[in-house]
TrEMBL record:
PROSITE patterns: ASP_PROTEASE, PEPTIDASE_A1. The lineage of its organism: Eukaryota, Fungi, Fungi incertae sedis, Chytridiomycota, Chytridiomycota incertae sedis. InterPro entries: Aspartic_peptidase_A1, Aspartic_peptidase_AS, PEPTIDASE_A1, Peptidase_aspartic_dom_sf. One of its GO terms (molecular function) is aspartic-type endopeptidase activity. SUPFAM superfamilies: Acid proteases. Residues 1-19 form the signal peptide. Coiled coil: none annotated. Residues 1-234 form the Peptidase A1 domain. This is Peptidase A1 domain-containing protein. Keywords: Aspartyl protease, Hydrolase, Protease, Signal.
Amino acid sequence: QQQGLLGLAFSALSSLSNTVGYYAGYECNWFDALKLTNPVFGFYLSNYNDGDDGEVTFGGYDATKYSGEPVWFPLVNTTTDIHGIPSPGWWTFSTKGWSWSVSSVNGSIGGSLFEENPRAIADTGTSYLILPQDVLNSILTILGATFDNDPEVQAIVLPCNNTLPPIVLSFNGTDFSIPTEFYTIFAGTTTAGQNICVPGLGAASESIPLIFGDTFLRAYYSFYDKKNLRVGFAQAVHPTSVATTATGTVTGVSSATKSSPYIAPTGSVTGILVSSATKSSTAAVFILYLVFSVLLN
Ligand SMILES: *[C@@H]1O[C@H](CO)[C@@H](O)[C@H](O)[C@H]1NC(C)=O
Ligand SMILES: *[C@@H]1O[C@H](CO)[C@@H](O)[C@H](O)[C@H]1NC(C)=O
Ligand SMILES: *[C@@H]1O[C@H](CO)[C@@H](O)[C@H](O)[C@H]1NC(C)=O
Ligand SMILES: *[C@@H]1O[C@H](CO)[C@@H](O)[C@H](O)[C@H]1NC(C)=O
């Protein structure tokens, strides 16, 4: 469950843009108030089987949490963008030239939504990877996702045994591969003892843009650069490679997450200008206020 909002996008999104602070139910531009020499931050999100904590770093990035060089994307002018927010507002980048593939099927990312200027936002506050509806449908079909009609479930499900192929998003020859253990979300166990997993994917709509949410951001460390107005991604380094199991069980999921497929990004806060008092904070950290959680009841 989210405990608050830590606004890390641009002040155009803030309800209290002149207020310094954080949370209190609003996004505030406290990040600017830190007056960091290097006005950047980076996110590592733990994968739920890893047992480690997520981490946000201010004033720099944590090189132990990613490998390779980040691939950068300039922010696009969002004047005509999502919900009429002036630019810059969200961490919005163009998805022109992006494509997707699963197994040997391949298509573009853009879709009918934002046809003239296809773009997405990077957002730790969104649990899932939000794709155009047609792309989502194609991917779910290829993955063999089925609707589980059990009255206790009533949801589109995937096998829990991490046997599915990765979802690959590509840009200009760079592949961003999301292995099955990152997009297969453990949602709980039925009273009959059956583990239920759901795809960590959602569909964009008129009111919901394409979003590179936690499903993507667990697999890729994300770089937010306010100075150069760009966002970047590099392969996240997780403490262990997650063992795939053929038994159909998912281990390492705390009881807190069992009631919901939403995996809260818990973890420490590191970096300059952050006191040790805040380091123990396990408050969920969100960039924006779009939070998607799907409860299986
Ligand atoms: C975005 O585009 C609008 C319209 O072309 C322009 O007025 C505005 O200055 C631009 N903003 C930025 C930050 O580039
Ligand atoms: C899909 O095909 C195009 C054209 O052949 C290629 O440039 C792109 O890299 C492919 N995308 C993926 C995700 O494989
Ligand atoms: C695509 O990759 C080439 C070769 O690395 C690079 O020169 C070019 O700037 C890239 N294009 C974009 C749009 O990123
Ligand atoms: C994985 O789970 C699916 C659905 O539960 C099952 O059909 C498949 O045989 C399992 N694969 C392995 C390798 O256990």
